[in-house]
Design goal:
Structural class: mainly alpha
Helix content: 40-55%
Strand content: under 5%
Distance between the termini: 119 Å
Shape: rod-shaped
């Protein structure tokens, strides 16, 4: 019986196992890190945009609620503001303060004309 001849020379290129070199792995890793950095930047920009939109919506909602409250308060007036009435006429009063308040407003109490007692049913 004859033994097969085994060559101890360099292996054939077709049969040789190829793998990735260290340089190829480093280049692929660097490209992946750059791509992931870009994705993080995009998500950060989208998150900031969503936060700004929410803030704008919240501020708009607060302004809408304030306008509705002011309109509701002005619809419940007990005095005709034009022409301005004098408070001692007994027809009610309307006080409009514009600008920043430098000093706290004095607390006013409504007095019932019939009994002369403070009326706590009105604001």
């Amino acid at each position: 019986m004859t033994r097969p001849v085994v060559s101890r020379s360099r292996p054939n290129c077709a049969r040789r196992r190829r793998g990735y070199t260290m340089v190829e792995i480093l280049v692929a890793t660097a490209l992946m890190l750059i791509l992931m950095g870009a994705v993080v930047q995009v998500f950060s920009a989208i998150g900031d945009s969503v936060n700004n939109s929410r803030s704008t919506l919240e501020a708009t909602d607060r302004l809408r609620a304030t306008a509705a409250r002011l309109q509701m308060d002005l619809q419940g007036l007990t005095v005709v503001p034009i022409p301005p009435c004098r408070p001692d006429d007994g027809g009610g009063y309307l006080e409009i303060i514009e600008g920043p308040e430098s000093a706290p407003a004095p607390i006013t109490v409504a007095i019932d004309n019939d009994s002369g007692v403070a009326d706590t049913t009105v604001g």
